[in-house]
Amino acid sequence: MKLNIATRKSKLAQVQTDTIIAEIFKMHKIECKKVLIETKGDMILDVTLDKIGGKGLFVKDIEIAMMEGRADAAVHSMKDVPYEMPEGFEIASMPRREDVRDVFVSMNGMKFADLPMGARIGTSSNRRSAQLKMIRPDIEIVPVRGNVQTRIDKIERENLHGIILAAAGLKRLNMDCIITDYFDPIDFVPAVGQGALGVEAFTSNENIKVFRSLDDIETRMCVEAERSFMRRLNGGCHTAIGAYAQIDGEIMNLVGIFELSGRMIKKDITGNKYDFINLGKTLAEKIIDV
Ligand SMILES: NCc1[nH]cc(CCC(=O)O)c1CC(=O)O
């Protein structure tokens, strides 16, 4: 028996899937094969994602592959997975999370703190732009889409001082040597689910137990708390939204940012980790209630 695991064609998606396939083999001695899907999100690169239907575009074509029986499961970056899942699908597992932080990658190794006035920084994320503007209002934001390598190439091609990326992607690609600064996730709040992977499958798949076995309980609680926050705020990728949950013993701390009438609001909440869904929801309500 060989299971088919679908993912996007990008190098990062493939590396992520190889890790999951290796883990499944280690735990169950079951072999898997990668099935590469070209998604709409990867094909349309000249417009920003929110104009063409959001990050869900990375996931939808892969779900179609599963519905057509071309794949048993799929590996996604959790930050690309919309809150609402189509009937019958589940995120069977979220393996242990990688580094959640956003990082700065500069042209010649220049530190973020040493950037000149009016520096040109590349990002297409509303969340990243809004937070950059908060710490450095003089910075000029330049949109850069595409996979990690394409964005890095744009530093030179578009004459940028640098770009903002997720540490997780660079670490998985073994490229963390190009990182010049790590932002503290409390100061510069990451995307909901950043650094986490999700293994998606049909609940009725005969191997669902195999896919569920990769779950890391603390990663699951943190990402679900962040997603609960996003759901309550109806956060798609039009508005700047970010959240970061952390567990210390029995306690969960959740920080969230949200753009409300053109202003960035940031709040946090602490509570019992088993109350993760409520913590996300309550934090969202605290933010809307200002
Ligand atoms: N938006 C694209 C995307 N989706 C997942 C990652 C990698 C990091 C992760 O797993 O969160 C990236 C690249 C980036 O934002 O730098």
What would you note in describing this structure?
The protein has helices at residues 11-28, 40-43, 57-67, 126-135, 148-157, 167-172, 208-212, 217-232, 276-288, and strands at residues 2-8, 31-37, 73-77, 89-93, 102-106, 120-122, 140-142, 162-166, 181-182, 197-202, 241-248, 251-260, 263-272. The chain has 290 residues and is α/β, with parallel strands linked by helices. It has three domains: 1-95 and 195-215, Periplasmic binding protein-like II (D-Maltodextrin-Binding Protein, domain 2, 3-Layer(aba) Sandwich), CATH 3.40.190; 102-182, 3-Layer(aba) Sandwich (D-Maltodextrin-Binding Protein, domain 2), CATH 3.40.190; 216-290, Porphobilinogen deaminase, C-terminal domain (Double Stranded RNA Binding Domain), CATH 3.30.160. The strands form three sheets. A five-stranded mixed sheet has the order 2-1-3-10-4, sandwiched between helices. Strands 7-6-8-5-9 form a five-stranded mixed sheet. A three-stranded antiparallel sheet has the order 11-12-13. Helix 8 (217-232) runs parallel beside helix 9. The model has no long low-confidence stretch (mean pLDDT 93). The ligand NCc1[nH]cc(CCC(=O)O)c1CC(=O)O binds next to strand 8 and helix 6. Its EC number is 2.5.1.61. GO terms for molecular function: hydroxymethylbilane synthase activity.
